């Protein structure tokens, strides 16, 4: 099958990124978040590469994603981050997924399934140190902790929390979250603590924070995928981490338009002189956002050209000026070509969003090609 538009994922750079992170983590376990189709880069191939490269845990957001990974032969531990839904408990247990419990009520539901199945299972408890998303409040956390510790069907495997502002330097919010988490750790007797994996650090904590937040396991996702600004990384080794995605397409049509011609829906762009126009077959139906109309750019033959007119569902137009363009030639929409680069940060800035959202947004119509 021929695809005029595709996403190239560089698995060699990815494994280098993983190696760099592992070296930085030392004896801390590495949980790679692969939720949301591995941040848009392909759940199964990314997870297989991670397993091969010695990642210890995979993190997914839902039971559905975890089941898919098991059905594709992934054997390393999988932790489901999202809140537990009662109808999923049976599958969680059948597919050997680790999950997070955030209330005594949920613990009782799991327990009744375990009794029926004659099983025990690994569980993680989440404490909400300041994200206000899921997790027990620090004062009621102990009800859940004590409940799970006294029921033999539970193997208390981990205690986790999640940072709300780890990407900001010297965040007071983050310091408070660390303090609350440390206090929980401190109050657990050494004998019990020994077998528990504490984990709170995300990418921001690895880049900005101190290694004391790494605990027994860290969960950096965006960093592994090269979607963090590592120029500011405290650990210099992390600065070698690079993006792994290049979004490519091929020019599908070329023409010259006269001065005064309006381009695309609504004629939001009018040629101020005679110019050459190249049409590129990708649009918002592929996740190349309409908000980039008259703002985004593409790389052709290592040079940058502006997108003109409204981005359509399946294509958009590029102002080539006086330069030639040829049907079939490669256009890079995200990533490097020659010495030029369009980064996810650049697109995120243009759209007022975060780089993760840029990559996640590419739809299933864009094939992911692994190189
Ligand atoms: C998404 C997520 C992470 C990873 O965040 P990054 O910013 O990509 O490192 C870690 N932990 C949990 C619970 C998450 O939901």
Structural account:
Helices cover 29% and strands 25% of the residues. The relative contact order is 0.13. The protein has helices spanning 11-25, 35-39, 43-52, 63-71, 89-94, 104-117, 141-150, 172-187, 190-193, 203-208, 344-351, 355-360; strands at residues 5-9, 29-33, 57-60, 78-80, 98-101, 121-126, 154-160, 197-201, 217-218, 245-250, 253-257, 262-263, 269-270, 275-280, 297-300, 303-308, 316-321, 330-337, 340-342, 368-370. The chain has 371 residues and is of the alpha/beta class. The model has no long low-confidence stretch (mean pLDDT 97). It is built from twelve helices and 20 strands. It folds into two domains: 11-229, TIM Barrel; 245-370, Beta Barrel (Lyase, Ornithine Decarboxylase, Chain A, domain 1), CATH 2.40.37.10. It starts with a strand and ends with a strand. Strands 1, 10, 11, 14, 15, 16, 17, 18, 19 and 20 form a ten-stranded mixed beta sheet that branches. Strands 2-3-4-5-6-7-8-9 form an eight-stranded parallel barrel, surrounded by six helices. The structure holds pyridoxal-5'-phosphate.
User: What is the makeup of the main sheet?
Assistant: 10 strands, mixed
Estimate the strand proportion.
15-25%
User: How many distinct beta strands?
Assistant: 20
So how many helices? 12
CATH C-level class of the largest domain: Alpha Beta
| Tally of separate domains | 2
Bound ligands, named by name, code or SMILES:
pyridoxal-5'-phosphate
**CA-atom Rg in angstroms:** 24 Å
Q: What's the architecture of the largest domain in CATH terms?
A: Alpha-Beta Barrel
Poorly predicted parts? none
Shape: elongated
CATH homology superfamily of the largest domain: Alanine racemase
User: Helicity, in percent?
Assistant: 25-40%
N/C terminus separation? 17 Å
| Class based on secondary structure composition and strand pairing | alpha/beta
């Amino acid at each position: 099958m021929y695809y005029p538009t595709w996403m190239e994922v560089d698995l060699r750079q990815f494994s280098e990124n993983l190696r760099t992170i592992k070296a930085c983590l030392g004896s801390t376990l590495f949980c790679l978040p692969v939720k949301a189709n591995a941040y848009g880069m392909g759940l199964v191939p990314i997870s297989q590469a991670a397993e091969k490269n010695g990642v210890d845990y995979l993190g997914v957001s839902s039971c559905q994603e975890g089941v898919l990974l098991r059905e594709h032969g992934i054997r390393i531990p999988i932790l489901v981050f999202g809140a537990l839904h009662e109808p999923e408990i049976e599958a969680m247990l059948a597919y050997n997924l680790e999950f997070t419990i955030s209330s005594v009520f949920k613990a009782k539901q799991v327990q009744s399934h375990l009794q029926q199945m004659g099983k025990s299972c690994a569980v993680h408890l989440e404490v909400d140190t300041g994200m206000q998303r899921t997790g027990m409040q620090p004062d009621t956390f102990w009800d859940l902790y004590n409940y799970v510790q006294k029921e033999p069907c539970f193997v208390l495997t981990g205690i986790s929390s999640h940072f709300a502002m780890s990407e900001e330097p010297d965040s007071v919010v983050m310091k408070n979250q660390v303090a609350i988490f440390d206090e929980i750790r401190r109050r657990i007797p050494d004998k019990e603590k020994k077998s528990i994996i504490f984990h709170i650090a995300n990418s921001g904590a690895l880049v900005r924070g101190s290694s004391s937040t790494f605990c027994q396991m860290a969960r950096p996702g965006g960093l592994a995928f090269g979607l963090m600004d590592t120029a500011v990384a405290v650990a210099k080794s992390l600065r070698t981490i690079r993006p792994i995605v290049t979004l490519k397409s091929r020019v599908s049509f070329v023409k010259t338009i006269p001065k005064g011609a309006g381009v695309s829906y609504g004629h939001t762009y009018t040629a101020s002189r005679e110019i050459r126009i190249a049409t590129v077959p990708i649009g918002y139906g592929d996740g190349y956002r309409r908000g980039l109309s008259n703002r985004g750019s593409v790389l052709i033959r290592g040079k940058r050209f502006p997108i003109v007119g409204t981005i359509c569902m399946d294509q958009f137009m590029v102002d080539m000026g006086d330069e030639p363009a040829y049907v079939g030639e490669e256009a890079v929409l995200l990533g490097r070509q020659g010495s030029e680069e369009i980064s996810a940060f650049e697109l995120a800035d243009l759209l007022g969003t975060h780089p993760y959202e840029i990559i996640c947004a590419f739809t299933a119509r864009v094939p992911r090609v692994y190189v």
